[in-house]
Amino acid sequence: FVIINQGFVLDTNNAEESFKILSTIENQAIVDTIYSQLIHVLIEQTRYELALDHLLKYQSSLKTSNIKMQAFVQLHLGEVYYYTAHYDSAAPHLESCCQLYKVLTDSSSLANAFNMLGSVYSFKGDYVKSAENRFKALSLYEQLGDSSQVNLVKLDLGNNFYDQEDFNKAVEIYSSSLEYFQRVGDSVNIAG
């Protein structure tokens, strides 16, 4: 697979070659954009080993002043480790990502990272930490007025309480989000 952007052609199968090509570009904003697109494509295609290789190579070249891309790399390292069931590796990257998004005051990305961290802790069986992170995500999404994400996080929270066998709390939360999904006609999450 080849990505073409800004006149550059990158082979997604060869992180080393892509890294060499990108290192010749002087405009860091262009490099960041191309690398962001490359990582998104690889993750979307579930090519996690290649995404991990690209992320690690890119991480080694990042300047410490580029906090936005550091957060991006940490988020996606956490995401790749999460998708490959390496939860112990995912958690520290997502924790780091959350700290960076706090510095950047990027509430939407921070909420996304907290929710993913909640998923990681859920798979690790730490439902308390999972719920803590999901409640943080919920609060941020409520502040942002993102009703869809609020209710998706509520579904995740419902799952948390169900896994802890707190069925009354799970039903309460599920019912709250069900009302929203019925109102907007989201049959996928109604059935979920």
Q: Any overview of this molecule?
A:
The protein starts with a strand and ends with a helix. The mean pLDDT is 87. The chain has helices at residues 15-22, 28-44, 48-61, 67-83, 87-104, 107-123, 127-144, 147-163, 167-184, 187-191, and strands at residues 2-5, 8-11. It has 10 helices and 2 strands, in the order E-E-H-H-H-H-H-H-H-H-H-H. Strands 1-2 form a two-stranded antiparallel sheet. The protein is elongated. By secondary structure, it is mostly helical.
Q: What amount of the residues lies in strands?
A: under 5%
Average residue-wise pLDDT: 87
Number of strands: 2
Measured as a percent range, the helix fraction is over 70%
Order of helices and strands: EEHHHHHHHHHH
Please state how the strands of the largest beta sheet are arranged side by side. Answer: 1-2
Overall shape: it is elongated
Could you describe the largest sheet, including whether it forms a barrel?
2 strands, antiparallel
**Class by SSE composition:** mainly alpha
- Calculate the terminal CA-CA distance, rounded to whole Å: 34 Å
| Gyration radius from CA atoms, angstroms | 19 Å
Number of helices: 10
Instruction: Give the uncertain stretches in residue-range form.
Output: none
Outline of this structure?
This protein is mostly helical. It has helices at residues 15-22, 28-44, 48-61, 67-83, 87-104, 107-123, 127-144, 147-163, 167-184, 187-191, and strands at 2-5, 8-11. Helix 3 runs antiparallel to helix 4 (67-83) and helix 8 runs antiparallel to helix 9.
List the helices and strands and how they pair.
Layout: E1 2-5, E2 8-11, H1 15-22, H2 28-44, H3 48-61, H4 67-83, H5 87-104, H6 107-123, H7 127-144, H8 147-163, H9 167-184, H10 187-191
Antiparallel strand pairs: 1-2
Helix pairs in contact: 1-3, 2-3, 2-4, 3-4, 4-5, 4-6, 5-6, 6-7, 7-8, 8-9
